[in-house]
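Lab notebook: predicted structure, single chain.

Context: the supervisor wants predicted structures on file for every construct in the current expression panel, including those that have not yet been purified. This is the next one on the list. No modifications to the sequence; it matches the entry in the shared construct table.
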Amino acid sequence: MISWIILGLVILIVLIIIGLYNGLIRLKNRVAEAYSDMDVQMKRRYDLIPNLVETVKGYAAHERETLEKVVAARSQAMNTSGADVEKKLAAENNLSSTLKSIFALAESYPDLKANQNFLELQRELTDTEDKIMASRRFYNGNVRDFNTKLQVFPTNIFGKMLGFTEFKFFEVAEAKEKEPVAVKF
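Prediction complete. Output recorded below exactly as produced.
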């Protein structure tokens, strides 16, 4: 009789561990999917930036430094390995902040603001930035769910034993990026 009870407890513990493991794998895959979604939107942004830069160049040839910063930030973000999440997210933050300078540049050139190509590219870029923001929220939500699952009892006991580690949230790296953008006319 005691051997049946012990066998039942062992089976119960194994089933609990299997359930915890499968739950962590599901959440880990959701985090990976969310990161991939964010990566797709960033790729879309990379494709749009050269078009925007070329349009602006036609109107603001002497503003080369601003444009070169945007191109350099784009290259850095594209060349940063997706495996190093922290470096990738920092490069993306840098690119986002340099893109703001393109729109500030447009404020200085009324003809550029009225140019149909610029307006369309600006709309596309704004749409892409909105999608990136949504994908970052989705990523952070999945990271929150995974990290919470990994930290609560009894998963905290078995999760670490099974080799699971917490993911890092996407965060704004520089305090300057948290401040509102000043628009001057």
